[in-house]
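Example record for the data management plan.
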Amino acid sequence: MRKRWKYTTALAAVLSHAAVADTINDYFGSAAAPPFEVAEQQPCRQNNPHRNVHFGATHIHTTLSGDANAFGVTNRPDDAYAFARGEPITLPAPFNQTHGSRVQQLARPLDFAVVTDHAEYLGEVVRCSTPGSSSFNSATCKMFRGEELGGWPEEMAHLARMFALVLKGDAAPRNPDVCGEDGTACIEAMSGPWLEIQRAAETWNDASEDCAFTTFVGYEYSLAVDSNNMHRNVIFRNATVPTLPVSAQEAGTPQALWRNLERNCLDSDTECDVLAIPHNSNWSAGRMFYSEYPGANTPADEIRMAELRQRLEPLVEIMQVKGDSECRNGLHQVLGSADELCDFEKLREPAEPAVDCELSTGVGGMQLSSCISRLSFVRYGLIEGLKEQQRIGVNPLRLGIIAASDNHNATGGAVAEAGFEGSSGQDTLPADRLQGEIKVGNVATNSPVRSNPGGLAGIWAEENSRESLFTAMKRRETFGTSGPRIVPRFFGGWEFPQDMCKGGDFAAQGYEHGVPMGGELPSTHGPESAPVFALNALRDASDEGAPLQRIQVVKGWVDDLGRMHQTIYDVAGNANNGASVDIETCERKGEGHAQLCSVWQDPDFDAKRDAVYYARVVENPSCRWSTYQCNQLNPADRPPSCSDPNVPKTIQERAWTSPIWYTAPRQRN
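Corresponding structural encoding:
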């Protein structure tokens, strides 16, 4: 175990040198090297020009996040990285118990990880947790520590603690009871935990030639608009980062976040580089991918804002604990056959008779009460990007794909269906995890049994170093999985050899004759040409994986009336292979594949029309986590969700690749 570093002593040193700022913005300065030694990265022993696969977690919360802290989580960034490396970690005891702590450990360590604690309320947690602070004995801080619950029911005490710091559901002004009238006391207090986050990342990053484990400095920007999720995970390339993480309390729109990151990182004349990853678009009521340019007065202003978003947001999180955000059937002006696999891991029941937002956005996405918008889903966000490219010449939604967990126990990578221990101090017992619905005040509605363990991010990079992994993320050579370590490759071109799957040089041929996932197809060879795609996938051979059933290509485009179209092609394997699972024993039955490979040409290609393609790799059916846990309970102790026909008993785990784009010649700049 490496030496731990606590922020409490550093906080006093940081604040003792802090000058009183004239304005709040003075605290959020340009990037600079950290006040500690940073190890120089050595050349990695394992370096593959055709790139290796690396699995990791890009969305992890610790006790520094106000919500995790309120839910009783005590694990810190150091603990999160130790867990990702394979060390055991202690999880909170069941609520209102003083014993029964649980120990969890990964069977397979991760290759990389990022702690992304909420920037919002980062200073408030310090102020309320540090004896001697001027607000420590305030009514708000006492309630946050659970000392005065103000009439809340005992079983809701953890929610009361969280709401002590939150004035309303959306990004709120800082609480003067904790932060002072101008809020600067809490901004100053952010310095300590921000330094702890940086130190932990540096401590655990392996800069030796072994390159066994890579970390990045990061945080979460947690904006809500009309109770709609607009959150982003912000990840930095190296140790040179801004003086403080800008939160939704300072930057009240995504555009304000992008401008801040541009000013204080990208254009800071330092080595700082950064990307932001939108997540939980399924909670956004269409706001995440809605095309809007606040403050733009001219077409040139719109183009500039679209280019900035494209520069800063190369990736999107397609799945996590709070559900799948890929697609949903039956939405406004989405034409094409229904996609049977769109019902996967939805927080809102697929058959729910909800109102369609059509071309507008809704209110209450995080409360699961809004209208349902096609722009809450990644697939239609990608197609919306094609529409914007046709309109202004820039695609602001050219998004690669990853998956993550949003785990609030500091246990990133704990995504197996069997043995799921929950994702926060809220769900410590099976009975908690199997609840049908929890109202989180006026902020959100949670459906624990419809939640899931989350997924993993996959990156194709030459080596496991910060520079190599970050560069791969920027070029979008990434994929996401729903948990298993499925390994997909996806290349697009015009003249792939038909026997690519038979040789041992699949990747070499892919790079030589085309572009990998995340790339753009080169110009067409002529009006009679159609793109060719080379796809390969390996199953997760561990107990966490099942045999592969099929590979699909998902295609999206826009017609002349602005309507969205989708087509799903099965290109390898067999959907009707007879595979099944016994839900009483969770024993899998039927045949599947250890590997699937195909060279496939689009039979419906139109050279005059922009298109976006991505691959989806699907396993045979297996038991869902809730089925495992229901089976472990005595029949008399099983909650109603165990017999609810609307709660899936089985799932088909999967992987999604980043897209490959085709831009018609007339659209190119």
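Summary line stored alongside the record: Residues 17 and 213 are 34 Å apart (CA to CA).
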